What does this fold into?
Amino acid sequence: MAALKEKRTCGQRCEDFGHFVWNSDNGTFMGRTPEKWVYISLYYVAFYVVMTSLFSLAIWVLMYTLDPYAPDYQDRLKSPGVMVWPDTYGEEDIEIIYNTSDKASWMKMSNILNDFLKPYNDTKQLECNNYNCTKGKYFIQNTFSAPHHTKWACPFTQSMLGACSGFEDPTFGYNCTMPCVIIKMNRIINFLPSNQTDHPPYVNCTILDGHENVAKMEYFPESGILDPSYFPYYGKLAQPTYVNPLVAVRFSLVGEKHAKIQCRVVSKKISYENYYDPYEGKVTFYLKALK
It folds into this structure.
């Protein structure tokens, strides 16, 4: 029968570990001489320096090939999305519901529009976007002729929204049954809505449900046109002061004062029948005035 191995005490084990860390008999530290540790350290330093250099070189080459002003691939954005303000969402849809008898209710809607229109303040726009753009033509810019190596942006002022600007009526019609909504088309770099400027994009709203409850629709600017001078958009770095052109629509609600409405940006290059993207080229919302 083999003899049982002698059980080592905790002190002996600590002594063995200390002997492994530093062996004074052969002058090794953790099993290697100082000379070998120097060689190993130099090897790993050189290895990681080379790896870091290769990684940095790869990143530099990648960044050198990228255009800082526009993404190389825009496959997912062939047609712009459309949004509406006030952007009050229900469980699944945009529901603009307010009570004309409840000041807090309609003030909520007007405050949303006031906050949204702050960048469009007339004074602010004329200060940062003071270029005299030619209306009715695409604003093609092949050089960075604006200050700080940027491109010019055309001003869009709050007053251009007419009766829905908030100047004539600070409540935007939400204290009665003539509410205003604001339609905005999202930006796509270098996107032109059509091949010709004689057919500019425009907003057209249709009543999907509750036709008898909408007596009239008015567009601001006139005819709901998005002027071609705001296209193309060259990106945030190239046009830091750019603001999207807007269209405001004022509805005259009658009868039961509620309707389901779809507002579409009409242009040859803007699609709106994408089943998987309900906001591509159009936006659908519910508008209802309570009392």
Notes: Residues 85 and 182 are 5 Å apart (CA to CA). The two ends are 100 Å apart (CA to CA).
